[in-house]
Amino acid sequence: MPRPLRSCLAGRRRPPRPPLPRPSPPLPARWLGAWRRRRRPDRIIGELGERANELDQEAISQRATEVLDNYLSARRVTLTAQTRSQLLAALLADILGFGPLEVLLADEAISDIMVNGPSKVYIERGNKMMRAAIKFDSDAHLMQIISRIVTGVGRRVDESSPMVDARLPDGSRVNVIIPPLAVKGASVTIRKMRKDPLQIGDLIKNNTLTEEMATFLKACVNARMNIVVAGGGSSGKTTTLNVLSSFIPGDERIITIEDAAELQPRQIHVINLESRPTNVEGKGGVSIRDLVINTLRMRPDRIVVGEVRSGEALDMLQAMNTGHDGSLTTVHSNTPRDTISRLETLVLMAGMELPSRAIREQIASAINIIIQQNRLRDGSRKITYISEVTGIEGDQISLQDIFVYKQSGFENGKVTGMLTATGAIPHIMETLESTGNAVPMSFFDPHPDSGFVRPKRLHVVPNAA
């Protein structure tokens, strides 16, 4: 009989299996985790005591370097110069900056940062959503960074006030919502502000609009037309508003009104106003509407409202109709026609029992141009309509499209289409010409493949009698 298998293998040793490779975080990240667990950043701040606010960043950096060196030498840890530099930078970000977010904020290719709790961070890069390779150590660590962001602009976030809008020192917009409203941990959404704001040439290069459209809009701003930029979230309304505001002559007094200051006018004579939420007692709040009313007493040449979303729409329309022409604002809507309906609804939110006819007459006489901007399926942003408010007929406000974007298809993950004129001649052409801002009539010739045909202009022969 054959010998048992166990007896054949008796006395033999099986060679040990090599350990399976396990992904491990980079060395600076591992040391940083241990550093935070021992609350070393808190100890550094504690050692500095009351002098922490008086010391400059160089002094704090020097003290943090000393503590780090003592920590590593006590444990006989040797790091390369590059690793030590990365670790020190991460520690200083925790002490002086915004922790793990500092790496993302420094990357200019990232446009949006979305924190869904301490372990899930997403970014938008090149119009594509992806997960970031960073995370926070705990909910407490995330709340510490949130507190540093909101207190920097004099705001607060806690259980009694779990939602807040804030901004970073570079102007980036921040929205925070924490438990109990955010069920799975605090959520932070950051819309980054570019260090070099996009100019009209950049929008033309990105095919957001054409040179003819840009020239027409510049003429409208110089001729003091009232313009509304409409669109959905993340469609680029604020960027377009920034570009339009850059067309305002430098010798005019500009007042901007926003919830969180994002606009970056390059003119010298600019006053930036920002709304303020209520305090713990529910007092002290200053709304956008309050600021619009106060702005009328500040002798403005141009009023730029970051976004109308409530009763301030009525005061904005009244300002446009009482000599403050050339005003700019944005509103959330999907089409130019929806913009008219939404403005009518916002006026009703002011609490004034006005008839619909009176509201529509205010809108028709106040607004000249509606710019509709949309974010398409491939992430690109296009100005899909430039429409003119031509008046009111019966109970309906009349609109005519001057420029449109005609989408023709979706190929290889990209939206295809063309920006073209519709052939309609704007009614404001006489105003543009009388103010020295005339544009060539050829700008309104439709693209041959667009399907639009310029209507024939009727030449009326005067009556001989």
Molecular structure report:
The strands form two sheets. A nine-stranded mixed beta sheet has the order 9-8-10-11-7-12-13-14-15, sandwiched between helices. Strands 3-2-1-6-5-4 form a six-stranded antiparallel beta sheet, covered by helices on one side. The termini are far apart. With 465 residues, the protein is of the alpha/beta class. The protein is built from 15 helices and 15 strands. The model is unreliable at 5-9, 20-27 and 457-465 (pLDDT under 50). It folds into three domains: 25-95, no CATH class; 97-194, 2-Layer Sandwich (Beta-Lactamase), CATH 3.30.450.370; 200-444, Rossmann fold, CATH 3.40.50. It has helices at residues 5-8, 27-37, 40-48, 57-74, 81-96, 101-106, 139-151, 200-205, 211-222, 237-246, 288-295, 312-321, 336-348, 356-366, 429-434; strands at 110-116, 121-125, 128-131, 163-167, 173-177, 187-191, 227-231, 254-258, 270-274, 302-305, 328-332, 369-375, 381-393, 396-411, 414-421. It is globular, with a radius of gyration of 29 Å.
Order of helices and strands: HHHHHHEEEHEEEHHEHEEHEHEHHEEEEH
Classified by CATH, the class of the largest domain is Alpha Beta
Helix-and-strand structural type: alpha/beta
> Which value, in Å, is the CA radius of gyration?
29 Å
**Count of helical regions:** 15
Question: Which key features would you list for this structure?
Answer:
465 residues, alpha/beta, Beta-Lactamase, Rossmann fold, 3 domains, nine-stranded mixed sheet, six-stranded antiparallel sheet, 15 helices, 15 strands, 33% helix
